[in-house]
Amino acid sequence: MNLVRTAMLLAFMTALFMGVGYMIGGSGGMMIAFLIAAAMNLFSYWNSDKMVLRMYNAVEVDERTAPEYYRIVQGLAANAGLPMPRVYLIENPQPNAFATGRNPQNAAVAATTGLLHRLTAEEVAGVMAHELAHVQNRDTLTMTITATLAGAISMLGNFAFFFGGNRDNNNPLGFIGVLIAMIVAPFAAMLVQMAISRTREYSADRRGAEICGNPMWLASALAKIANSAHQVPNMDAERNPATAHMFIINPLNGQNMDNLFSTHPNTENRIAALQAIANEMGYRAAPRAEAPAGPWGGSRRPGPWDNARKGPWS
After folding, report:
1. Inside any domain, residue 254
2. Which of 28, 30, 71, 124 could form a disulfide with 22 if both were Cys (CB 3.0 to 4.6 A apart)?
3. In 10 A of CB 3, how many CB atoms?
4. What is the reported pTM?
5. Contact indicator for 87, 108 with CB cutoff of 8 Å
6. Domain region containing 77
């Protein structure tokens, strides 16, 4: 159902983009819009991961430089049947993480130092399993396409502002078409982008719970990350708000309503869904409040992080 819904939203986004081109310049404008979209999508397909990682000054790590973090991802990738992704660390106090890449063979996952400082090993495993679920579901490519189309629609809206008043621009709808291109179309594109993001988060939560083996690890992590997002600003994300949908929790604010203006589902709704999954899998439906912060002391269940050493965040 989520796949069908996402496909329908992407089709609407594409149709909206072509429609904006038509409203600005008729059939010629629609063709130009199509060519621009094709070029932008081709560039994004090959370079989106590099662009996003560079925005956040992410540093690639390995088993030598960040052994415990790396081995968690390594073990989870094996559980999911995925190729080992590139692993990155971001120097940022806000606990958060994201995945990027055009396909599982060219994927990368990134976590902030804040995530590794504030969460237990189990919770980190839950978060990284969620990100690997995005990779496995190819959500990273879907979100890149929607972000590119949304940006292109906004760009066409700006074109309408500058060129819409020209009587020779072949605009078939006159001033009404210009107004729609300037205001309504970019707003609609934003709503579609957010709807796709929220749809994919629930799917990634479920699959991530299956990959790590315990839904409550992710539920506990989401509660901690959402609470910290209220308190710890992520200035890199503030400068690049178009990337907010990529993170496991919205890095820009701590919205509490699951509505059309949120890039992520309500955290409490996600936790409730994970608790239901935990019941299905036979786990206790309450996060372990006593779990120590990482990295990473205290007793814990065996996992791919066992016998590892502290990483560069300690």
Report:
1. yes
2. 30
3. 12
4. 0.76
5. yes
6. 2-281
The verdict on whether residue 264 carries a ligand-binding annotation is: no
238 is in an annotated binding site: no
Residue with tokens 């939203």: 9
- Asked if residue 289 belongs to a domain, the reply is no
pLDDT of amino acid 59: 97
Say which of 131, 238, 268, 290 is annotated catalytic. Answer: 131
What is the count of structural domains for the chain? Answer: 1
Tell me the sheet residues that pair with 60: 88
Catalytic site residue 123? no
> Parallel, antiparallel, or unpaired for β 97-100 and 59-61?
unpaired
Residues of the chain under the 50 pLDDT cut: 1, 165-168, 254-260, 285-314
Which residues are within 8 A (CB) of 248 and not within 5 positions of it... i.e. 6 or more apart? 96, 97, 98, 127, 130, 131, 222, 225
Of 155, 160, 156, 153, nearest to 190 by C-alpha is: 153
Cα dist. 213→59, 80, 104, 165, 201 in Å? 28, 11, 21, 59, 18
Q: Confirm or deny that 130 is annotated as ligand binding.
A: yes
Give the distance from CA 299 to its chain's centroid: 31
